[in-house]
Amino acid sequence: MSRPRIVIVGAGFAGYRTARTLSRLTRHKADITLLNPTDYFLYLPLLPHVATGVLEPRRVTVSLSGTLPRVRLALGEADGVDLERHEVTYTDPEGQRGELPYDRLVLSVGSVNKLLPVPGVAEHAHGFRGMPEALYLRDHITRQLELAATAPDAATCRARCTFVVVGAGYTGVELAAHGRLFTDALVRRQPLRQGIRPRWLLLDIADRVLPELDHRLSSTADRVLRRRGVDVRTGTSVKEATSDGVLLDDGDSVDTRTLVWCVGVRPDPLVAGLGRPLERGRLRVDTFLQVPGHPEVFACGDAAAVPDLTRPGEFTPMTAQHAWRQGATAGRNVAASLGFGTRSTYRHRDLGFTVDLGGAQAAANPLGVPLSGPLAGAVTRGYHLAAMPGNRVRVAADWLLDSLLPRQAVQLGLVRSWSVPLESTSPEVARVPHQRTKGSTPPENATTPMPEEGPDADQHRTT
Q1: Beta bridge partners of 200
Q2: 162 burial type by CB count under 10 A (0-12 exposed, 13-18 middle, 19+ buried)
Q3: Angle at 323 between CA 41 and CA 358, to 5 degrees
Q4: Burial class of residue 189 in the structure, from the number of CB atoms within 10 Å of its CB (0-12 exposed, 13-18 middle, 19+ buried)
Q5: What pLDDT shows up at residue 434?
Q6: Helices and strands (DSSP H and E) totals, the chain
Q7: Alpha helices in 245-306 (DSSP H)
């Protein structure tokens, strides 16, 4: 009898944990294939550290082949699932098509940037969901300050060193907090015109930063941001974006060359094409993470609407910590369906939050105990080290070096603006122009269809 074929689509928090759990439970008694556009698992909560020069890119990436024994990696992007034929189709990095037949399928495709119908945003803003976007942003910030230092007039100088972040959830708050420290460090070595300093604006339509958190943690983050010099504007958003600035909905106009879009995420559009019931763009599953009507198909993470047993009638939020734990449950339940162990329902109650504000500052409430300042910073970084599935020593070493040495202000130029469009179904992969000839100009932007939007998924919670 041939061994059962298990295909896992996506190697984010949910997919990676599913693969690791299945690798341990099946023990060479099943063929496990992990389909992913990259050969690494990205520890997304530390991406602001990459964008602001605290951590080197490879520190937050964990090798799939190196950490998942007995799992075969298939490089590619899934573009279709045939539920009747039990087959996943995909395109590899070189444009070749492939098919993966399965006996069990786990859909853990995650989420992509959420885009609102604001004129000019798709053309002039950049998201913050993948490594290419972080690398582009680090180069872009460095370049804007270098150009500002030699700008022909004060107005151009101010515009180049003004950075606008839209969305005051976890990602936006952490990016603005780290970004302000980064730009201050850069201009100490290459001063701007007299009287001009880097300016960071953090905008959100909510009435406070981190609106999904306890008021005490929100107040801590707000206080740190304002003390650091970040211009926090709640109840405000972007009305229009251009290449030279943004128009806010309160009538104010801000000259800037940098607009970072952190308003949240939406489920990967792959699940919308399955023809199965959705919940705000997410694929409905039962408490065992199985797709109704297709017991051989499981789904978890941001693309799955998982019933929340701790809050009857609701679904678990799109967070990294839920995705990580759902991956473990999916792995156990897939194994159980093949005769290895017993299945279980997914249930998890949140035990706290951590928000890294850069330097020694953070806001956290592990087990419901509110913390701030250096103690919260130590708890937050300790949590990240414990949660990472690899590279802990390298990350800790980079943090130590960052506290002792100045950051390197260099542009690598590896990721261009056109290769990381906001409207992308694969933010983890830099766009490559199709059939580009030598000397031709790449497209400035492109659009893709959007499914129904979902809430923010960049929340980091303690275990």
Answers
A1: 163
A2: buried
A3: 65
A4: exposed
A5: 57
A6: 11, 26
A7: none
Structure tokens at 81: 């699932």
Task: State the DSSP string of 122-148.
Answer: HHH-B--SSHHHHHHHHHHHHHHHHHH
| Token pair recorded at residue 243 | 């290449």
Q: How many residues does the chain have?
A: 463
Integer Cα distance of 212 and 444 in angstroms: 35
The amino acid occupying position 127 is: G
Q: How far apart are CA 9 and CA 298, in angstroms?
A: 10
H or E element at residue 189: helix 170-189
Residue 224 vs residues 79, 209, 340, 373, 379: alpha-carbon distances, Å: 43, 11, 50, 9, 17
Three-class secondary structure of residue 403 per DSSP: helix
Residue that has been written with the tokens 């802990």 in this structure: 392
Q: What is the pTM of this model?
A: 0.90
**Structure confidence at residue 350 (pLDDT):** 77
Residue 200, phi then psi, degrees to nearest 5? -120, 130
Helix intervals (H) in 296-358: 320-337
Q: Over the chain (463 residues), what is each successive 10-residue block's mean pLDDT?
A: 92 98 94 97 96 96 96 96 97 95 97 91 94 96 95 96 96 97 93 92 96 90 97 96 96 97 93 95 97 98 96 92 96 97 91 90 90 95 94 96 89 90 85 50 40 39 40
Single-letter code of the amino acid located at 257 = R
DSSP, collapsed to helix, strand or coil, labels residue 282 as strand
